[in-house]
Write a structure and sequence with these properties.
globular
Length: about 270
C-alpha cells in the first residue's frame, strides 16, 4: 500500500494504478517550475559523464547500453520510492523531525528505512565522487600507476571527511561549484550530442536517427534551462542579481538548441 499527501492529519492511500498514472502523467503545481529545475540540476552532475566514460573503456556499445539501462531503472525505482515516502509527511526542518513523522505514520520501519537510506546516500556519494576524480585525473595526466589513482581517491575522500567532522560549511565553495555545474553540464551535453552524430567517430549503424536526435535536442534544451537557472540562482543568492529573468533563460536556451540542431543536420553524408 502506498500513501498520498496528508489531509487533515489523515493518510490518503494511493493505489498502484495511481502511482503509475502519476509517474506517466506528471502534474506540476503552479509556481513549481524553478523548484523542479533546481532539483534535477542538483541530481545531474557533470562528473557522472566523466565516470561513465572512464569505466566504459574496453566495453562494447551494446554492453554499455545494457549497463546504462539497468542503472537508470534502479535509479528510477529509488527516486520513486523517495517521492512516495515524501508524500507521507507534511513538512520537516530536520532529519530527526522527519524520522519522527515517518515513525508516526509508517511505524518503526519508517524511521529505520530513513536511517538506512541516508547512510546509503552518503556512503555512495563518498565513494563515487573520489573515484570519479581519480578517473578524471588519470585521463588528464595519463597516469598508469594504480598507486597514484588510489592516492588521488584517498585524498579527495579525506578532504570530504575532514569537512564533515569539523562542522565547517564552505558555502562560498559550494555556490561556486553549483555555478560551474550549471555552466559545464550544458557544454558537455552539447559536445556529446554533436560527437554522437559524427561518422568519423561513430559507425553509421550506431548513429542516432532524426527522431532520436529530436529527443537529444529536447534533453539539451532541458539541461540548458537547468544550467542557466542554476547560475541565476547563485547570482541571486550572492546579490549580483535582484530579480529573476526566466524569460531570457528560455530564449537563450531555445537559441542554443536551434544552433546545435543546425550543426547536427549540416553534418556531411
Amino acid at each position: 500500500m502506498f500513501y498520498g499527501p496528508i489531509k487533515d492529519s489523515i493518510q490518503q492511500p494511493l493505489t498502484t494504478g495511481e502511482v503509475f498514472s502519476h509517474a506517466l502523467l506528471p502534474a506540476f503545481p503552479a509556481g513549481s517550475e524553478l523548484l523542479i529545475l533546481g532539483l534535477v540540476g542538483t541530481t545531474i552532475v557533470p562528473y557522472n559523464i566523466f565516470l561513465g566514460s572512464g569505466i566504459s573503456k574496453g566495453k562494447t556499445i551494446p554492453l554499455m547500453r545494457t549497463g546504462l539501462s539497468i542503472s537508470v531503472i534502479i535509479g528510477g525505482m529509488i527516486t520513486a520510492a523517495i517521492l512516495i515516502a515524501g508524500t507521507s509527511v507534511k513538512a520537516f526542518s530536520s532529519f530527526p523531525e522527519l524520522s519522527d513523522s515517518l515513525h508516526e505514520h509508517l511505524g518503526p520501519i519508517g524511521s529505520l528505512a530513513l536511517g538506512v537510506g541516508l547512510f546509503a546516500a552518503g556512503f555512495s556519494s563518498a565513494i563515487t565522487a573520489p573515484y570519479a576524480s581519480s578517473i578524471i585525473a588519470s585521463t588528464i595526466f595519463g597516469w598508469e600507476d594504480q598507486r597514484k589513482l588510489r592516492w588521488n581517491w584517498g585524498l579527495v575522500l579525506a578532504i570530504g571527511f575532514i569537512f564533515g567532522i569539523s562542522g565547517i560549511r564552505p558555502i562560498p565553495v559550494i555556490l561556486t561549484v553549483q555555478a560551474l555545474n550549471g555552466l559545464i553540464l550544458p557544454l558537455l551535453v552539447a559536445l556529446l550530442v554533436f560527437l554522437s552524430n559524427q561518422s568519423t567517430l561513430i559507425p553509421s549503424k550506431y548513429q542516432p536517427g532524426w527522431i532520436f536526435n529530436v529527443v537529444l535536442l529536447l534533453i539539451f534544451g532541458s539541461v540548458l534551462l537547468i544550467g542557466f537557472n542554476q547560475v541565476e540562482k547563485v547570482l541571486l543568492t550572492s546579490g549580483l542579481l535582484s530579480t529573476s529573468h526566466f524569460n531570457w533563460i528560455i530564449g537563450l536556451s531555445a537559441f542554443f538548441v536551434l544552433l546545435l540542431g543546425t550543426l547536427i543536420y549540416r553534418r556531411p553524408a
